[in-house]
Design brief:
- The chain has four domains: 160 residues, MoaB/Mog-like domain (Molybdenum Cofactor Biosythetic Enzyme, Chain A, 3-Layer(aba) Sandwich), CATH 3.40.980; 59 residues, Molybdopterin biosynthesis moea protein, domain 2, CATH 3.90.105.10; 80 residues, Molybdopterin biosynthesis moea protein, domain 3 (Molybdopterin biosynthesis moeA protein, domain 3), CATH 2.170.190; 69 residues, MoeA, C-terminal, domain IV (Beta-clip), CATH 2.40.340.10.
- Strand 20 and strand 21 form a beta hairpin.
- Helix 1 runs parallel beside helix 6 and helix 3 runs parallel beside helix 6.
- The protein has seven helices and 28 strands.
- By secondary structure, the chain is an alpha+beta fold.
- The protein is elongated, with a radius of gyration of 30 Å.
- Bound molecules: ligand LQZAQKY5 and molybdate ion.
- Belongs to the MoeA family.
């Protein structure tokens, strides 16, 4: 059994960006990561711009200026101002080379074609210099940048319409177990509704992964082997739930070994999620998560999340963590380090009752996981604990 840190490091080491680089229109690239550095083909802004509605001035010693005409946004006019001359100008309009400051109109009194400044102004005021944000030929955004709405807007402002990105992985979720029935079917004795696939599909969807197929297999060795073999051949990431423990009908480990998925680790000293498997075959990464729903989802956020971020070339690879003060006492059972379902609110965190790995109800109320290491037992109000914020 390996430690949580060792397991996380093994996931990090074995999921370097390996997804296909593809060219995409920026309209379809939101949430993806740049696979190549982008250099600007233009200066941004492309010309000296007025940052205010007001008057462009060719500065001189007096506060009075002779007004010549006007320049609106989009105009190509470039009047030559002599010292002491001004031109009416609007936000976003080109500032002529002969002007060296723009005074906002609130600080100007106008009388016919003479304007008087109500205070003095220094060189460069309210002028956005050409290339202030980025110069032609300079780096606009580096490889590895996440294409957020702002990043896509910025690239659009540079006239960039296509980008090279790491494509989203093709993902398969496989559920295992004779006891599982779909929520549309009648629930007979001994059966439970299958919920891990819906839960994991939603967790993936919330992170922007939509190329997800779901498969189901009974506790049958041959069928498990065949399905896993096909799924591993056809996907970048395979997430299996259940059948990975030591029971006589837990066939996943044996089947993965048989279809030559190389084991990178199996079993992590943690609660929940002890019987966690991670492996790979060619370019496909495989996680076998424990079937217990809360254990499955915890392992998803702690380990599968790292793999997804890394495969997509994104940073940081782990979920955000904060140090939060506990609002209520909590007694930890057992000696395994634990991820505890919790509610984080305004800097404080409350660990919820019902931490059993089968209990999804508690997870449904949580927005964070508190990490309690091996040594931690009684946690008192006011104690500070590492709190992992869930991307929900
Ligand atoms: N002798 C031992 N038994 C168990 C050990 C152990 O060390 N020795 N470990 C326990 C721990 S810890 C966990 S976690 C579970 C993991 O077992 P599996 O990964 O093999 O999962 P299953 O047995 O298939 O299922 C466990 C539990 O979860 C329910 N389940 C499974 N799939 C789904 C699904 N898709 N939707 C909803 N619920 C699901 C299943 O019915 C079981 O109740 O092993 C312990 N045993
Ligand atoms: O590893 Mo398990 O999730 O404690 O029941």
């Amino acid at each position: 059994m390996i430690s949580i840190e060792e397991a996380k490091n093994k996931v990090k080491e074995n999921t370097q960006p390996h997804l296909n680089k593809v060219k995409k229109s920026i309209h379809n690239s939101g949430g993806l990561t740049l696979a190549e550095t982008i250099y600007s083909k233009i200066d941004m802004p492309p010309f000296r711009q007025s940052a205010m509605d007001g008057y462009a001035l060719n500065l001189h010693d007096s506060l009075e200026y002779k007004l010549l005409g006007e320049i609106k946004a989009g105009d190509e006019a470039a009047p030559k101002l002599k010292s002491g001359e001004a031109v009416r100008i609007f936000t976003g309009a080109p500032v002529p080379d002969s002007a060296n400051a723009v005074m906002m109109q609130e600080k100007v009194q106008k009388e016919k074609n003479i304007i008087k400044l109500t205070e003095s102004i220094s060189q460069g005021t309210n002028i956005r210099p050409q290339g202030e944000q980025v110069k032609k030929g300079a780096i606009a955004l580096e490889k590895g940048t996440l294409l957020t709405p702002a990043a896509i807007g910025f690239l659009s402002s540079l006239g960039i319409t296509e980008v090279s990105v790491y494509d989203r992985p093709k993902i398969a979720i496989i559920t295992t177990g004779n006891e599982l029935v779909s929520p549309q079917e009648p629930l007979t004795y001994g059966k439970i509704y299958e919920s891990n696939s819906t839960m994991l599909t939603e967790a993936l969807k919330a992170l922007g992964y939509d190329d997800v197929s779901v498969f189901k297999v009974e506790d049958d060795y041959e069928k498990t082997k065949t399905l896993l073999d096909t799924a591993v051949s056809n996907n970048d990431l395979v997430i299996i739930t259940g059948g990975i423990s030591v029971g006589d009908y837990d066939f996943v480990g044996k089947a993965l070994h048989e279809i030559q998925v190389k084991e990178i680790f199996y079993k992590v000293k943690q609660k929940p999620g002890k019987p966690l498997f991670f492996g790979m075959r060619n370019n496909t990464r495989v996680f076998a998560l424990p079937g217990n729903p809360a254990a499955s989802l915890t392992c998803f956020y702690i380990y599968v999340y790292i793999a997804l971020q890394n495969m997509m070339g994104r940073t940081p690879v782990e979920l955000n963590r904060v140090q939060a003060k506990l609002s209520k006492v909590f007694v930890k059972k057992g000696d395994r380090p634990q991820f505890l379902k919790a509610i984080f609110y305004e800097g404080k965190v409350e660990i919820l009752e019902g931490q059993n790995s089968s209990m999804l109800h508690t997870f449904a109320l949580a927005n964070a996981l508190v990490f309690a290491d091996e040594a931690t037992t009684n946690i008192q109000p006011g104690n500070t604990l590492e709190t992992i914020l869930l991307p929900i």
